[in-house]
Amino acid sequence: MPHEAEQPLEHVEHAQHASLNPFDRRVAMTMAIVAAVLAGVTLLSHRAHNATLLHQIEGNIQNTEAADLWAFYQAKKGREHLYEAMEELMNVTSSDAKSNEAAKSSRAKWQASAERYKGEAEDIKTKAETLHHESEKSQEESHHSHLRADRFDLGELGVELAIILCSVAVLTKRRGFWLSGIVFGVLGAAVAVTGFFLT
Asked: Are 175 and 23 contacting, i.e. CB atoms less than 8 angstroms apart?
């Protein structure tokens, strides 16, 4: 019976000794630092992916609005041409029409309408071109954010591998795994930092 009572105490003593093992403490501290870096890199990655989607959505909205304006522009140009054609038709159909007051009034009204539609169409064209350029800019920003997200993802992978290698070091008590984990962590963080320098 006394031997059975000593066995759990011996396990407690071994557990206390293991918790004071300097190697395990260093690896655990390394893992804590790597985990903090991983949290930061993961946050950057998620934000870059969200920015990519946001820019794509903005670009698509602007592109749709530009397409709507181009359709409106075509409708205005169609009306402009219709009124110009009606004025020309009035001039061609009858020489008496030139002297007729009603014909003069109609011709003036059609000419004024054609000019109005021409001006409105030009304003719409300017707005559509502006929206098209903004859409292209949003698509470029989306591509840039995607490239940054790729760098952050690659950095995240390196930092995750560092945690795995440090975990293996704790289990195997081999210094090589720990040092490899440190190297992967530093490389992963460095790759993530390069995401800030992409232009």
From this structure: yes
| Residue 14 included in any domain | no
* pTM score of the predicted model: 0.69
Residues 6+ apart with CB under 8 A from 157: 188
Parent domain of 52: 23-197
Cβ neighbour number for residue 64 with a 10 Å cutoff: 12
CA angle 48, 50, 56 (to 5 degrees): 105
Give dist(CA 66, CA 79) in Å, integer: 20
Whether 17 is in a domain gets the answer: no
Is residue 153, in this structure, part of any structural domain at all? yes
Domain-located, residue 103: yes
Over residues 80-108, the mean pLDDT reads: 73
Cβ 187 vs Cβ 37: under 8 Å: no
Average pLDDT over residues 91-95: 66
Query: In whole angstroms, what is the distance from residue 37 CA to residue 180 CA?
Result: 16
Domains contained in the chain, number: 1
Q: Determine which of 3-12, 69-78, 153-162 has the lowest per-residue pLDDT on average.
A: 3-12
